[in-house]
């Protein structure tokens, strides 16, 4: 009797595994302005940053968010978000070969942007924390390619070192290009404490089966970090 009960329970548990609901609500593509990312004191970058990284937006990550606009928990082998284990980060170089060049250009590790080995470590971190529980747990190429394809299709929104804008003007500028409301993230120069435009984040709906992430939508919140409202003045270092 005990055996049958154990069997029934194991059977029910095994039935439940593929039913783990995927709590992805939408994706947030985070594009960083390197001189801001490098001057807040959180990261030590080459100074000055090698061109073109002193004047272009680079990819920070593309993050699956839940309905409350929180990032999903990272992959946990004890409570896997997906029935098939995702590929390990050490296989990324091989799996990402078709877009390796573009990844190095658009998704550099700003601490060492010209070092492909450093860049691979950054991608490995993004895969572990944000990719493995995305809609592409077994297909890192599609996950990374989604972000690269979007970035390649975007301008730098006319951002120029030395410019000063209100956070509201940045929103207007970006939404004029993408026809959706972005989220603006700001930080501060560690020495002068001036508010800087740090990241422009764009939000996307979940992909169709087999497809890439590509359907832009409004982000749930407009401002985060050191900018709180449309009136804040932000510098572009
Ligand atoms: C902070 O701003 C000053 C003045 O613009 C600049 O010289 C300095 O390099 C910035 N700090 C860092 C850590 O980049």
UniProtKB/TrEMBL annotation:
| Record's protein name | RIBONUCLEASE 1, ribonuclease 1
Q: Name one GO biological process term.
A: RNA catabolic process
Record organism: Hibiscus trionum (Flower of an hour)
Which family does the record claim for this protein?
Belongs to the RNase T2 family.
> By its UniProt entry, which Pfam families does this protein fall under?
Ribonuclease_T2 (PF00445)
Q: Give the signal peptide range.
A: 1-21
Is rRNA-binding given among the entry's keywords?
Answer: no
Q: Which PANTHER family match?
A: RIBONUCLEASE 1-LIKE (PTHR11240:SF84), RIBONUCLEASE T2 (PTHR11240)
Entry keyword annotation includes Signal: yes
Mind listing the GO molecular function terms for this protein? ribonuclease T2 activity; RNA binding
Q: Which GO terms describe its cellular component?
A: extracellular region
Q: Which InterPro entries match?
A: RNase_T2-like, RNase_T2-like_sf
Q: Which UniProt keywords apply?
A: Signal
């Amino acid at each position: 009797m005990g055996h049958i009960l154990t069997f029934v329970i194991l059977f029910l548990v095994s039935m439940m595994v593929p039913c783990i609901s995927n709590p992805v609500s939408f994706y947030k593509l985070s594009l960083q302005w390197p001189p801001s990312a490098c001057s807040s004191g959180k990261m030590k970058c080459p100074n000055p940053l090698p061109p073109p990284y002193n004047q272009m937006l680079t990819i920070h990550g593309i993050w699956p968010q839940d309905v409350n606009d929180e990032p999903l928990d990272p992959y946990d082998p004890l409570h896997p978000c997906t029935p098939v284990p995702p590929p390990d980060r050490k296989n990324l170089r091989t799996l990402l070969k078709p877009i390796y060049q573009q990844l190095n250009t658009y998704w550099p590790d700003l601490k060492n942007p010209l070092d492909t080995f450093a860049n691979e470590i950054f991608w490995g971190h993004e895969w572990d924390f944000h990719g493995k529980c995305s809609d592409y747990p077994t297909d890192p190429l599609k996950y990374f390619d989604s972000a690269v394809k979007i970035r390649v299709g975007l301008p730098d929104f006319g951002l120029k070192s030395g410019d000063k804008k209100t956070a509201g003007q940045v929103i207007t500028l970006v939404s004029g290009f993408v026809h959706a409301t972005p989220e603006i993230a700001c930080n501060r120069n560690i020495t002068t404490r001036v508010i800087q435009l740090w990241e422009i984040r764009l939000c996307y709906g979940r992909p169709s089966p087999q497809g890439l992430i590509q359907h832009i939508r409004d982000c749930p919140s407009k401002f985060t970090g050191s900018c709180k409202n449309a009136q804040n003045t932000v510098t572009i270092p």
